[in-house]
Amino acid sequence: MLEPSHNNELPVIPAKRYFTIGEVSELCAVKPHVLRYWEQEFEELKPVKRRGNRRYYQRHDVLMIRQIRSLLYEQGYTIGGARAHLVSDNAKEDSTRTKQLINQMVGELEEVLEILK
Predict the structure, then answer these.
(1) What is the pTM of this model?
(2) Could you write out the DSSP letters of every residue in the chain?
(3) Within-domain flag for 12
(4) Does residue 95 form part of some domain?
(5) What is the three-class DSSP state of 117?
(6) Phi and psi dihedrals of 30, rounded to 5?
(7) Residue 92 maps to a domain
(8) I need a surface site. Which of 1, 12, 89, 99 has the fewest CB within 10 A?
(9) What count of Cα atoms within 13 Å lies in the side-chain half-sphere of residue 55?
(10) CA distance 117 to 114
């Protein structure tokens, strides 16, 4: 995510379910046409589209956009480098979640085994 030193630069994300592209543009200090371009470049970024193809972003989308912004503008990544960085981060998170689920299932199976004994 954003480094702590940069968090003060961007406004606080309000407690809303959906944000328009204009709101996200202001929250992330990125122009709307850049957001639309990033949607094409980063498959993780998929806002909900409703009437007339209007985009509605959720909180996780705003956080993702802030992370992309940080990678590109502050850390100097290219689009391809930022994409690879996000994919590797997602792979690490998936691996951690998988390990947690396996440990939970092992514990539950051991409980079932104790009950059956």
Answers:
(1) 0.69
(2) ---GGGGGGSPPPPS-S-B-HHHHHHHHT--HHHHHHHHHH-TT---EEEGGGEEEB-HHHHHHHHHHHIIIIIS---HHHHHHHHHHHHHHHHHHHHHHHHHHHHHHHHHHHHHH-
(3) yes
(4) no
(5) coil
(6) -135, 140
(7) no
(8) 12
(9) 18
(10) 5
Residue position matching structure tokens 């689009």: 79
**94 within domain boundaries:** no
pLDDT of residue 94: 62
What is the token pair recorded at 105? 């299932």
- Tokens for 86, please give them: 């996000």
Tell me the CATH number at 55: 1.10.1660.10
Total of domains in the chain: 1
102: confidence class by pLDDT, cuts 50, 70, 90: confident
Write out the residue range of the structural domain in which residue 61 sits.
4-85
Q: Is the per-residue pLDDT at 87 higher than 80? A: yes
